[in-house]
Amino acid sequence: MKTETEKPKRDARSLALALLPSGVKSSVERALYSSGLSLSSLTDIRLRRDGASFITVGGVHRRLDTTLSPGEFDDFVFSLTGGSLFSHADTIREGYISVGGIRCGVCGRAALWNGEVGNVTDISSVSIRVPGDVPGCSSRVYELITRGGALSGALLYSPPGTGKTTLLRDLIRRLSADGRQLAVVDPRHELGSACVGMSADVLSGYPKDAGIVSAVRSLSPEIIICDELSGKRDAEAAVYSRSCGVPIVATAHAGTLSELRMRPETNALAGSGVFSYLVGLKRPPGKDMSFFINEP
To answer: For the purposes of burial, counting CB atoms within 10 Å of the CB of 209, is it exposed (0-12), middle (13-18) or buried (19 or more)?
Structure first.
């Protein structure tokens, strides 16, 4: 008889489907079957309270043939939080619920406190980001940042949903296979599952700026990896890391290099010497990822 540890692990896509109400799960499976696409192509599931629901598969948005009533949708959100919206209030305020390493983006009615979002109620839609594993997708970036034996930093940029997080997860595994000592700053719990059994110290739930500074001061990493730098404090933390001799690989949202430079903080980073490479990612529907490499 198999023990608990011998049971096969379900992949992230199967886990994402397991979050869904049974009727929606069946609808997703019908949509995949009718389009001739496999579960491995699924990247996003969007459910709305008494509205149209969609999946993104193979880079194409496909409408589901079922909808959730307001009561069914509220029950679904309640189940995502394990029966306690209050325990997830901090992340809901940031726009997401994290369930087992899967990020579920949420939106609803915001209550403002002193001009900032203090609470979110009446959640009206949920976007489940389905994490994927694409072995080898980080090969080009890995070759760049390990060129000559010394580690270099890189800023990866692309629009949302292009595969930046998937690439980081693969890069963590590649660097760990070399025995490199990594610090992974994971505020939204999306990278940690890639670090199990790896030579990585995971700062889970830390704000990016605090996590980067803490890693430099306390963990002696060879390199820091984090997702989605945004804002002045994140930029200052990245500069601090590099000034202490610790390279950083991070991501940012931008479709082109000129868009990356539109924001003051990322424009300053691009020319600061923090990153040896600025790497643009593009993945047209149904095609492999392509790279646009710039050396600042």
So the answer is: buried
Note the pLDDT tens digit of each residue in 48-63: 998 899 999 877 899 9
Arithmetic mean of pLDDT, 30-52: 87
Return the axis-axis angle of helices 208-218 and 232-243, rounded to nearest 10°: 20
Residue type, 112: L
Report the pLDDT value the prediction gives residue 2, as an integer from 0 to 100.
41
In the chain, how long is the greatest CA-to-CA distance?
59
| Two structure tokens written together for 5 | 């540890």
- What residue spans of the chain are helical by DSSP H? 12-18, 22-35, 70-80, 89-94, 139-145, 164-177, 208-218, 232-243, 257-260, 264-270
Structure token digits, residue 260: 């990356």
The span from the CA of 254 to the CA of 33, in Å, is 33
Task: Domains for the chain: give ranges and CATH numbers.
Answer: 4-129 (3.30.450), 139-294 (3.40.50.300)
Q: From CA 154, how far away is CA 275, in angstroms rounded? A: 5
3-state DSSP helix/strand/coil % of the chain, to nearest 5: 35, 30, 35
Asked whether the beta carbons of 211 and 124 are under 8 A apart, the reply is no
